[in-house]
C-alpha cells in the first residue's frame, strides 16, 4: 500500500524473478539464509558456491553487479566488527605479518563475514525484485498475523510522511540559519522529534479516516487473488534446495 | 426501505475533543431520501466534526445519529460505513492505492465482494463519473479534477444510501466544477454537501442548513437563506462579488 | 545492536526465536485491547518513527554498533503489547528490506530489542506514574526514566545472549563493558527523545498517549445551554486489572526464561564452565582492569570471583531485578487504586 510509487531499494524490471509471487520469494530467501547459517564455517568452498548461486539469481533477475555491491555496503559496521575480532578474541594465537592474531577470532571473523554477507545479499536481491506492497501481501499470504501486517503497512506509509515532514522542518530550520553540527545541536533536533511526531500523525490520520470510511477494518481487502502455481513454487525453491545440497556436502565432506 | 424513513437523522449531537475543545453543541436535523442538502458554515463551525460523526469515526459525545433507521453504534459499524459514503476534501487522502481500479475496488472488496462481481461494480462506479478509461492509471498521475471524480467513484462503488461530500468544489477549475456538478445531479442518491462555495450550493441543493458555533442556525430553501443578508452576515457567510442568488438560475 | 546471521549460534537463535514467537503471540492477544481503530495508525507511526530513530548508528568501541532503540517510546505511546509488536515489525522489515540484522537472528534481535526494552520500560513507567502525582509532567518524567533504564537493560540482555551463544571467543567482560558503557550514554539520548516526544504529544493530543489514559478527566458537554456529562468513551476505559496483571506476568516470565537459559547452559554445557575456569587464569588481569572502571562494577556479584560469570549473572539479575522491582512497586500501588478502575468490556469490533 502506501502510495503507488516503488521504494528506493526496488529495481523495476520484468525478469522471471520479478514475476514470481512474493510469498514464494520470501519463503525461498528465508530458507536459503537458514541453510547458509547452518553450514559449518570450516567448509569454505560451500560459501563460494552459495555466492555463485546468488550470482545466478542476480543474473536471472537482471540486477547489475554494481547495484548489488553498492547495496551490500549496509554491512560495513559488521565488517568493522569482524575485522576487530582477531585482535580482541582470546585463545590460541598465530603470527601474521608480525601481528599476533587469535585463531578463534579469525574463524569467528570469517564466520560472521561470510554468513552475514550472504544473508545481506539474499535480502538485497529480494528487496530489489519485489515491490513493498507485494512484500506485504506476501507476508500476509504466509500467514503473518494481520495486525503485524497492518502495523508494517502503516509504518511504510508513515515512512514517506516522516521523511517528507523531516525535509520541510529541516528547510524551515535552515532558512532561519540553523545548521546541525555536532553534539551541541542535539537539543534542537530532539525537540523537533516531538513536533515531527504530531505533524506526521495528523497527516497520516486523514488517510486512515478515509480508509476506515470505506470499511477498512484492519486488513487489506484482497482485490486480486494471487496464487502461486506448483511450477512457481519449485522455481523459487530451487535456490534453497540447491543450497541445502551444498550444505549437506559441507557437513559430510 | 420504506420511503418515509429519513436517510439521515441527527438529534442532540454534542461532542468535545479530548483536549477539552467542544465543537458541537446539540445538532438536530433530518434529511429525507433522495434530497440534496447543503451544509453551510464558516471555518471552525464544526462541519468536519459533524461529518466524522455520520459514519461513526467520532463517537463518545451525546446525542444520536441514525442512517436509514439504523443507529450509528459499534454493533452496526460495518453496515453504517457501507451506507454512508464520505468524500473527503483532499482526494490525496482518499486515494491511497497504486491504481484507480484498486482504489475503487477497495471499499467493495472490504465488504467481501470479489471476482467478476467486484469488477463489474468498479466499472459501473467509474462509468458514473466518466473515468472508465483511466482504470489502470495511478491516481497521482491524474489531474486534480480527475482525482476528485475518482474519489467520488471510490465511494459510489459502495452503493451508499447517502453521499457526503466535504468541500467538493475546492481547488477545481470552472470546467471540472461544472463536470462534477453534472455528475452529482445525475446520481440517484441522497446527498449532503458540506461547503462554503455558496453559488455551488445554490446550483445543486434546493435546501440548505447553516451550521454555526456548533449548532444548526438555519434550515430552509437555499435561495431564501442566501438572500437573507442579515442571516448571512451573522454567520460569516459571504456571497462572491456580483453574485445575486435571486437572479441565478437554479438547477434542481 | 542488530545481530547479523551467524553471530549467535543456531541453538540460541532457535530458542530465542521460540521466545520471540511466544511473546508476539501474547502481544497479539493483548494488543487487541490496546488498539482501537483510531489508534491503529499510531502503531504504524510509532514503528516508522522507531525505524528512523534506529538509523542513527553509533559505532561501539570494541565491536558492534549502538543506536537508539525506541522500545520505551512505543510502550508508552501505544501500550506494551502493541509496543512489542511495533518494534518487532521494525526489526522484521529492517531484516527483509535493508538486511540490517540477519533473518535467522530475528529471534535474538526481537528478544533483545523489542521484548526486553518494552517490558522493562513499561513496568518502570507504570510504577513511576502510580507513585508520582497524577499530572502530565509526571508522565514525562516517568518516560525519561523508563527510557533511560531500558537501553542499558537491552545491552545487558544482548551481552547475556552473546555469552550463551556467541560464535566468537571475545571475553564477556569486554563485550559487557563496551555494550553497557556505550548504551548508558545512548540511554540518555533515548531518554531525552522519548520524554520530549511523549511531552509534545501529551500537550497536543493527550488521547494518543496510552500511558496517560488514566489521567483524562471526564468531559463536560454543553448541550443547548445545559451542562451534561460526556459518556465514558468505550476504548479509553481500557486500563483493566487483567491487562496489568498480564504485563507483570509477561515481564516475570521473560526474566525467568532468560534466567532459565543461563542455568540451563551453565549446567548442560560443562565445556563452557571448564573454559571459564581455564580463561580465568589467562586474562585475569585484563578482566580486572576492564571491570574496575566499567559502569558494571557496581553490578558485579561479590562472591563470584570470575569476571565472566559475574558479568553474566549481573545481566540476569539486572534485567530480573528491574522488571520485578518495577512491577512490584506498581503492583503494590495498583492494589490500593484498584477501586477506581471500572471493569472492562472486552467487546471489540472486527
TrEMBL record, chain A:
Q: How does it sit in the membrane?
A: Multi-pass membrane protein
Q: Where is it mainly found? A: membrane
Q: Name one GO biological process term.
A: cobalt ion transport
What is the official name of this protein in its record?
Cobalt ECF transporter T component CbiQ
Q: Which residues cross the membrane?
A: 43-60, 72-89, 109-130, 233-251
**Single GO cellular component term:** ATP-binding cassette (ABC) transporter complex
Kindly state which keywords UniProt assigns to this record, in alphabetical order.
Cell membrane, Membrane, Transmembrane, Transmembrane helix
The UniProt entry, under CDD domains, shows: EcfT (cd16914)
Provide the protein's localization. Cell membrane
Q: Which Pfam families match?
A: CbiQ
Automatic annotation (TrEMBL), chain B:
**Where in the cell does this protein reside?**
Cell membrane
Q: What is this protein called in UniProt?
A: ABC transporter ATP-binding protein
Question: What family name appears in the similarity comment?
Answer: Belongs to the ABC transporter superfamily.
Q: Which InterPro entries match?
A: AAA+_ATPase (IPR003593), ABC_transporter-like_ATP-bd (IPR003439), ABC_transporter-like_CS (IPR017871), ABC_transpr_CbiO/EcfA_su (IPR015856), Co_trans_ATP-bd (IPR005876), ECF_ABC_transporter_ATP-bd (IPR050095), P-loop_NTPase (IPR027417)
Report the SUPFAM superfamilies cross-referenced here.
P-loop containing nucleoside triphosphate hydrolases (SSF52540)
UniProt keyword list: ATP-binding, Cell membrane, Membrane, Nucleotide-binding, Translocase, Transport
Annotated ABC transporter domain ranges read 8-238
Give the source's domain of life in one word.
Bacteria
Which PANTHER family does the entry link to?
A: ENERGY-COUPLING FACTOR TRANSPORTER ATP-BINDING PROTEIN ECFA1, HEAVY METAL TRANSPORTER
User: What species is this protein from?
Assistant: Streptomyces griseicoloratus
TrEMBL record, chain C:
UniProt membrane topology term: Multi-pass membrane protein
| Predominant location category | membrane
Organism, scientific name = Streptomyces griseicoloratus
Report the InterPro entries cross-referenced here.
CbiM/NikMN, PDGLE_dom
Asked if the keyword Acyltransferase belongs to this entry, the reply reads: no
One biological-process term from Gene Ontology? transition metal ion transport
Keyword field: Cell membrane, Membrane, Transmembrane, Transmembrane helix, Transport
Protein name (record): Energy-coupling factor ABC transporter permease
Q: Which residues cross the membrane?
A: 7-28, 40-60, 72-98, 110-129, 141-164, 184-204, 247-266, 313-333
Q: Which domain of life is it from?
A: Bacteria
**In which compartments does the protein localize?**
Cell membrane
Q: Which GO terms describe its cellular component?
A: plasma membrane
Cell membrane among keywords: yes
Q: Which residues form the PDGLE domain?
A: 245-335
